Fold this protein.
Amino acid sequence: MVKASSALIALLPFASLLAMAPAQAHGVPDPAASDVQKISQATVQSLFVAYPPETHRTAADKIFLIGSAAPNGSVTINGQVIKRSKNGHFAPSFPLKMGENRFTLSDGSSTKVITVNRFDPAPAVPTGLNFAENSLVPGVDIARQVGERICFGAIAPPNASVNLLLGSKTIPLSTADSSVDLPANSAVLTGNTAPISDSDSLTSSKYEVCTRFSSATTLQPKYQLSLNGKSTTVAAPGKLKILASEGSLIATATVIVDSGIARTGPSTSYSRLTPLPKGTQASITGEEGDWFRLDYGAWIKKKEVTLAATTVPPETLIRGLSTRVNGDWTELVLPLQNPVPITIEQDSKSLTLTLHNTTAQTDTIYTTQDPVIERLDWQQPRPGEVSYTVHFKSDQQWGYKTRYEGTTLILSLKHPPKTSASRSLQGMKIFLDPGHGSENDLGARGPTGYPEKDVALKISQMVRDELEERGAIVTMAREGDDDLWPYDRVERIEAAQPDLALSLHYNALPDAGDAEGTQGIGMFWYHPQAHGPSQFLHDYLTQKLNRPSYGVFWNNLALTRPSLAPTILVEFGFMINPEEFEWIVDERSQQQLARTFAEGVEAWAKQVL
């Protein structure tokens, strides 16, 4: 299976996604592996286009063309001479009009034609007596509670009359007031985060209405469209079920996977919440397609839970709790009557565990003379929600994990690594993950076609050697062209139980980015315990190497989400930038980068240990 699927794209940093599939998947000539190695640092002697492919579709309003040619002479695009680096690489951007855009590239001896089709991602405004395709809500079967507000919507021609038919009720819909949309999350990576004004006729063809239901029922929503004296009625794809509020059995979900993925809404486009340990139980308060809504507000995939009918919801009291030391971990032991959902929040000096569907009767807490815990507090901010806050002895936290043993929740807190006074990395366990790998997962490609996977492995091996010279115990996710999905890498991090995990990459941009004008070192973190080392290493590299900064980003990535250690995804520079690419593949610069990065890790360790 090709790893440049949408599933992988959702898990990896968007800024690293350019040309992740084999070149054939993009319609770009694919050099043999030996040829790719040869052109990694050499000058390309004939016109080569690494991106975009010969035919390309995008919703972006501009596109960059990444490639290379012999440094002598000139390269033109549509007759215009373009800027190139000293080795002949180029990455200019051009605006795109809707529809077909043709780019003719020439170096005087050869010509290439690239066709880019720009499409509008918004639903097309329907004409005639029709609703827009896939616009009727609900699009899948849904279930909600009695008294809950439920909204319906459709897209129809402007100036139409649209009614919602619910059983014997007819409810008129009105046009939506809002004419503003928001860009995708990835827009943060290019700085284009401003709201998008929707000024075309589509605004007036969005019809909505919200209502509530006072009793349990099951309905098939239908929409009636009237225009120019004609009418049509169309059923929504999904049915609506209103759940009984009392006097019936309660549907209860139990998490059956090691880490249930809880989200803010019923699809993978919604943000993640604290994962739910295996065995967690909660009442179901709603459904939407393949998702259940749990009683504390999170949504979870149906395949990650089993169902049972109960007469009472899974709730619990909590009384005494205690701590114990188990090897390199301190365990906070919370005996409960039922394994309820949890939320964890971290800051620089504390971690707060919130138990949902819980009432406190806590009068006594026992903590040992502990390597990490300074103090433990609790509060009940609202009914059914109890929070326990661990205050740490150090500003740097080293990792945590959770599990249920029956109905007892165990929160494990990792101790600082034991290192030598003379060598700060002596005995520290560091995990290195060279980004991408294998012919199915090239990563970003430079102007010559040189793949990220190769330079990421090379720099990772150099960093490994430098860290080991300083006493670190280093585990590598891969030593060659291993075919690894992100979850494979996460499993290897969890198996290694490191003190620090680093995923090493080189960067790219989405189509709307400025490839020619964007350079720099970037860091991506998720848990607050990783913010300190992210900022420290970013500052250390940019200052010591005099390299530009791309920035330090909070980002919800598969390779920043592991919580058992500070986990960072590093972007050392942009493969697609002509000038920075030459620095990336220069062997002396690679050696300097590896040495400085290892020095930075050592300097950070000295500061926090």
In short: Residues 1-38, 199-203 have pLDDT under 50 and may be disordered. The CA atoms of residues 253 and 279 lie 9 Å apart.
